[in-house]
Amino acid sequence: MKHIYISLFSFLVAGLLFTSCDEEGMNSLGSINPEMVEFSLEGFDVKGEIDVLNATVSLSVPPYADITSLTPFVEGSYGSEISPANGTIVDFSSPVTYTLENSGQSKQFIVSVEYGAMDTKSTRLLVLGTSSAISEITNEDELAAAQWGKSTFPNITYMSFDQLANDASILNETDVVWWHYDTEVSLPGSALKQEVLTALVNYRNNGGGLYLSGFATQYLEEIEVVQQGHGITEAGGAPIEFENPDNWGMSFRGHTDHPIFQGLRMETIESAFLISGGAWRKDNKAWWTVWDENTIFPDYGISLASTEWDFDRTVLVLMAEFPGTPQQGTVIAFSAGAYDWKSVDGENTFMDNVQRVTQNILTYVATETNNNRTN
């Protein structure tokens, strides 16, 4: 009988402990002391960095966010009352004090919200092409690029030039436009429609940014990024893909600190490969040949990169930046035989660099777009 009482007592104690743990285990602190456990914002995939010791919370939002009208969600330690209450629209143009109270105790947290750089989750990307949908793209290089964009950027929209000509309103909610063109040297007629050109010129004149790659770098003159006569000086490629035993890449000497070149697998401290020996390639490119004294690379542009063998960047310009202003958006143009999204044979062991430099360009231009629009 004694053993029965002891077992019953143990069961009751265990039940009480389980109930207590179940209630207080709903948050990581498990304490009646008023503490902040989590701070997030409705509509944004961001969470605040909470410093419990100093009672501060800091977080960054995309540059297009309206920090004067944000709706936070705060999780406090068990039983805590929170002020301002969850669901309240709050102006974070200056730090805001949040108060948590529980069992006669209170604690205040200073919450600061700042604008941060764009990332793949926040960037609103518009990919342009000649096909009506990604699934209908027939050029393997363009298809691989668009599919990567879709898998990397959640806020992506694909649109054909014909669709853009009929309705360009998507540009009002776009941080960066990307057109990668590999089909042929000549630009397609759909991209040259006056409705399309006007829409893209207006988009840039309202601070919107663009990334033009492959043969699309020839679009710079058409959308008035460069003056007539300042555009690409050489464009072409092989009739069919071919095998090559060499690694090809780019030299960005003098620009190693630029956000575009961060996180790459480097060949040297100022260069990186983009396609590996043995991977088949077309050698498609549309760039400036600056070794020719008759060639004009505009002085309002920035030469960012050349081929890896042109280490000092004195022969070619394969990547150029046209910086934005409060009136016009930033544009990056990049075209090189090494910038190849699909090899018909042979593995490109540097595809991670192709993807990384593209991701960097798109998020960089998106950040510049929003900085231009808010200044």
From TrEMBL:
Pfam families: DUF4960. Residues 128-364 form the DUF4960 domain. InterPro entries: Class_I_gatase-like (IPR029062), DUF4960 (IPR032526). SUPFAM superfamilies: Class I glutamine amidotransferase-like. This is DUF4960 domain-containing protein. It comes from Paralabilibaculum antarcticum.
